[in-house]
Amino acid sequence: MRTIKQVQLWGKLTGIASILYGIGSSILLSPLSFVYILPGLISIFIGGLLYHIGRQARVADQSEDDSVEAVFPVIRSYSTLLMVLGIVIGISLICFIIFYGYIWIGKG
Amino acid sequence: MSKRWWIFCSIGLLIFISFGMNQTGVIANRQAEHIEPLCESVDQEMQSEIEEILNIFRAEDYGALTDRLNELEKTTESIGDERQLLESAICFLDVYGDRDLLADVNIYHSLLTFVMQADKNIQFEEIIFTPDQFYELIQVEGIIQGERESVHIEHYSAFQVLEPYLSREARESRERLEEKEKNSGISLKKMLSGLASSAHDMLQNPLERFMMTVDSFYIGKADLDKEIFDKESFVNASYFNLNYSVITYDGNRWDPINLVEYYPSTNTSDTLDRIEEVLEELPDYWFPREKVEQGDWNGYADYYREHRMDMIEYDFELYEYMFGNTLVDSRTFEEMIERVKREHQVE
Fold first, then answer.
1. Taking CA atoms, what residue in A is nearest to B201?
2. Domain boundaries, chain A
3. φ and ψ at residue A105, rounded to 5 degrees
4. Which chain B residues contact residue A88 at CB under 8 A?
5. What is the mean pLDDT of each run of 10 residues along chain B (347 residues)?
6. CB of B209 within 8 Å of any CB in chain A?
7. Shortest alpha-carbon distance between residue A63 and chain B (Å)
8. CA B289 from centre of chain
């Protein structure tokens, strides 16, 4: 139960931090170009997922059901977060490859 | 004996003064011959317009300059007319006596070059002139309404641009050193900044990291391009004895506007005299007469940059004489010309 309390606390805290960072980043970088809002929005979305994990952990903690099934919603939210992170990492990796390839071709 | 001595001295003094006055006249005529190509086309109306502009600079009324620039119709034709007015201002100024006024006129000309290049209806909030101690390097900031970035102009106006250029470099290096010394200790600000930076790294998502990498790559490239442009402009002006303005505008951070405008300096007139002297003996020698007659100093600099190595290969001493006013091996100009003619079998 101590573990689920930690997920509850840190899920919410890191979620809020990520949301605030995303908002700040979008506001500060938007004058440069509208494209710069995109990473901020992703940070807000990731923050939202983290916060949701924290909330699901709270529900599981308060639940009277002592079976493993009670923590399934937490695991489901966590799997969604991992999937979103995986997609973002994949897109970034493809972008890096295209960018360095473009520079390499440009040099050639 | 004493009376005769006084009469002799007085006559001597009169001759000396009149000789000096004639010398001034010679300088003015010499300038008119080379670097005042547009003066014949200046009519009364243009003259009064030029006087109006010159009065703004005489009064150092940069607010009036801003208003004039803002009221100007932003079409190629009207900007071109205003530029032609400024190019004709040299007809009413002495390159030696009115050096500062001429620098101001050239800066306004550079601002118009930028407005023409920027290709939009630019309105200025304020134009700030910051000259150095000797008015050899004038830094100008044109604050544009509704834009984050300002246009910057560095105008070098000196007999030799080397001195203000190197002074600026030294001053900037000194400022960087002072900044480094100031930030060398451990301070609360530095610690907080480090903490924020670590938090930023941790919270940054990979897509943001990618965008920052691309951004810093293109900004770094633009900075290096600007540095190269700045140095090349200086080298050209320095080689061919010209004054110049470097105009920069970071409106597009990845592809900023970098422009250069060359202008005749007090040294250009002397250089052109030496070139004419050489052309009398070697009529086929490199000289962009058309560019000089049109007052196209950018064209003049481009022409000599293109043919610099040809001239050096043809004869280094001749090149040095024209642009550096020094004789390397020969004792006189005649001796050098004779040698060049002999070596290249010129009649």
1. A21
2. 2-107
3. -65, -40
4. 205-207
5. 60 48 34 58 86 91 93 86 87 78 93 86 92 92 90 91 92 92 79 82 86 92 95 94 94 90 89 92 92 90 95 94 89 92 86
6. yes
7. 32
8. 20
